[in-house]
Amino acid sequence: xxxxxxKNNGIEYLRLVESVYSPRSKGGRKKTIFNIxxxxxFDDGQPDYVKRLKESFKNGSPLIPALLxxxxxxxxxxxxxxxxxxxxxxxxxxxxxxxxxxxxxxxxELGLIDLFTHYKNIYKIEFxxxxxxxxxxxxxxxxxxxxxxxxxxNNEYYDPIIKNPYEFNVYDTLDFVYKYRKTIFNxxxxxxxxxxxxxxxxxxxxxxxxxxxxxxxxxxDGIRQMGVSKEERKLPIVQMGMFMDENGFxxxxxxxxxxxxxxxxxxxxxKSSVDEMNFQRFIFIGDRGMTNYPNLLxxxxxxxxxxxxxxxxxxxxxxxxxxxxxxxxxxTSDDFMYKSRIIHKKVKDEYGNEHxxxxxxxxxxxxxxxxxxxxxxxxxxxxxxxxxTSPENFRISKSQSKDLKKFLKKDVENIDTGExxxxxxxxxxxxxxxxxxxxxxxxxxxxxxxxxxxSDTEIIDKYHGLSQIEDQFRIMKGNLDTRPVxxxxxxxxxxxxxxxxxSLLVLRIIQYKIKQLDNFKIDNTKxxxxxxxxxRIITALNKWTIDKMNDEHYRFNSINDKDxxxxxxxxxxxxxxxxxxxxxxRNIKVNIKI
Length: 594
What we know:
Shape: globular
Number of strands: 17
Mean pLDDT: 87
Distance between the termini: 18 Å
């Protein structure tokens, strides 16, 4: 039993309820034990009254005397007598995963279990569609593997997820996920708005790609194409664009051919998902790879705005002169300064129609960013210096040649002084002016925006939120093992990415709940996702296992692990040190509150 606050006709009431298991509904329901009365009647005006009331009831000394008869009387401690004989199979430990019950409850709260159950019943799907979905998500979070290997993990859970699975139904499940992908994203978005108070005044977008362990791309109509791999591997890839809200929750993903350029994904991705989600006006935030005016005009045509970065190296000479000119900068410290201007220009939309727009251009210089750029270019700049002093000692690689080309003059000189030019003694001249200009731009950053009335510092701060989405990609590629991709068809590849997306959302919700804990220590200068890394969460969940001691009793393992105990506390999961019967395990599951 526990105290619960509820509402009746807008008035907050207190009641004592008990969770009971209902075999008919295969789940839990609440049974009201005692109607306490309106909250206002009992509230003492001190902070956290309801929380203090709940704790007092739990401790046996309730703040409301009428609850005293309902307080649990301390029962004598259970004593267990377990008898084994040599050769008994229970003498060999066989821990099974129990942490999937938390993942399942999150999936239920997100509406996925009901959605897939609904479609299974409507279309009379004979195989366990919901069970295969659960296996795919559990496996992707806890132990990423191939699709068939994931099905074979079925018996690693304390209760097998599917009875006698036919392993190839996993591909039928992928077909279903692909077919109803828009419904899935819309359902998740509605749930995130209704239950997690999704904030969408900012919508972040970025693109990454995933490679395949094959050297042969698809034909020109296929999805697996050679492109610019983020890992610089010469293997076929697919491109994936992801939208994210301002709280760090992913919104949706879209898949593209591997040879699709980043800016070519934006408008298509918007039209396929975000444009149809009926968000209030939002500001689209993307990096310079998205800065393409047909994209930006599509965004503003629907009443939304944008904040995107823009390449400085590709800027005009006049723009670069304005950028490095110290006049107009606001200096906040020796490490940071910024300035802005309003510009008017004519640009074309996706249909070739010309528009005249007004936008704000914000530039800033950061000592931290300068140090990062110098570090990234350190080997190249050192190579340039050595090349200038002793060019005859160097062989130039293909990549170095590409970087070097823009700094070479068109003239050539004869190292010797004879009239007859020996081609083996010709070297290109480095353009010192271009090199100096390149070095002078280090530490500068440019942002353009439709929000001309927004302050420069707010524009910069909002743009920097884009770094969160890079963290999401790292989790997908690292912790969730999204690549290499082993499925081959467009439908299965897309469905695989959607399963990884759902798994990522589950991890984000766990991180979010951890952040809500009282007195949980976190560096407030970082985004909330840093409360506990995905790696630590996954490691802790894999420790949450259970052993069958005999035909009646179970024992939990590792629930005193530091990270696992934080996760359990975040979801108010209390597991006292005792042996458990099967009915008690069910009660733990149904009482998990998301």
